[in-house]
Amino acid sequence: MAVADSGSATVTLPTEEQILITREFDAPKRLVYQAWTTPELVRRWWHANRGEVTVAEIDLRVGGAWRYVAVTPDGFEVAFHGEYREVVPNERIVATEVYEGAPQTDGADEGTLNTATFTELDGRTTLTTLVQAPSLEVRDAIIASGMEAGMQDALMLLEQVARSLR
Amino acid sequence: MARAATTADAFNAIAEPRRREILDALAGGERAVNDLVAVLELPQPQVSKHLRVLREVEAVLVRHDGRRRLYRLNGPALKPIHDWVKDYERTWSERFEQLNVVLEDLKRKEEGDGSGR
After folding, report:
1. pLDDT tens per residue across all 166 residues of chain A
2. Counting CB atoms within 10 angstroms of each CB, which of A109, A116, B54, B99 has the fewest?
3. Contact A128, A21 (CB under 8 A)
């Protein structure tokens, strides 16, 4: 709350099966929502400075699919996809997220259920993303794979992007 | 609680708010159970229960000093999780930094709209 300028993201672990990512932006929520849901704009930020977003497909309706692919400078590709479960314009997006490199048998194909919430106060927007793993097994898979740098066929999520795009 | 048996790992240790408080308190140095009871303002059995979970995953270590049991933080047990969270945080910080650039662009374009279109 106290962070006035472009702070960094805050990550907390509210429960043993959840990860919460929070960040405040100096912009109204409809713009943050726009940047979050428009393919051309997603291409510009989702890479996290570790490569290039080559695919950003967004079919923004309940039951619609999304898919992002990023490629590192040395050619390693990571892909995620999912389905929108709830779409409330400028307010909230609930979607599943599956890491495509995950082994099929591990329960990781279930992916996580992610809720992005946009809250505006005095022209500033707080964006929170709650990542809900379906089980402790999947959560453990997220953590385990995230901790093995360079492990390319591991399970899950955004943190794989973090690891793999390094 | 029965849950502790199935979820006693380092991740669980830091996912529980009261246990995080205990870890915070121990970050300042070794403490006896009574100290922790005072700091957390929790009944002693509850503090002991949390300490037991923390001890099981070796997030804290205990030694006996006469009658007192002194607890201390065992950083290495938590480091992998700490590192993971930090790395995750770094990724999202960089991602959001770029998102911020996009937002500044969108804002500028909107301001320009009045005269621009």
Report:
1. 333 344 678 888 787 788 888 999 999 999 999 999 999 999 999 988 888 999 999 999 999 999 999 888 888 888 889 999 999 999 999 999 887 865 554 554 578 899 999 999 999 999 999 999 888 777 766 665 554 432 322 223 333 333 333 3
2. A109
3. yes
Q: Is residue B106 part of a domain?
A: no
pTM score above 0.80: no
User: How many A×B Cβ pairs under 8 Å?
Assistant: 110
Beta-bridged to residue A82, according to DSSP, are A66
Of how many residues is chain A composed? 166
Residue at B65 is within a domain = yes
**DSSP secondary structure, A49-112, as one string:** TSSEEEEEEE--STT-EEEEEEE-TT--EEEEEEEEEEEETTTEEEEEEEETTS-GGGSGGG-E
d(CA A33, CA A55): 19
**What residues of B are in contact with residue A36 (Cβ under 8 Å)?**
99
Closest residue in A to B10 (Cα–Cα): A16
Q: Which of A11, A44, A49 sits opposite B94 (nearest CB)?
A: A49
Whether residue B100 is contained in a domain is answered as: no
Pick the CATH number of A10-164 from 3.40.50.150, 3.30.530.20, 1.25.40.80, 1.20.1050.40: 3.30.530.20
Q: Which CATH number is B64's domain given? A: 1.10.10.10
Closest partner residue to B88 among A23, A34, A159, by Cβ?
Answer: A159
Q: Are the beta carbons of A26 and B103 separated by less than 8 Å?
A: yes
The domain of B23 spans: 3-74
Residue of B nearest to A46 (CA): B95
- Closest partner residue to B99 (CB to CB) among A8, A11, A45 is A45
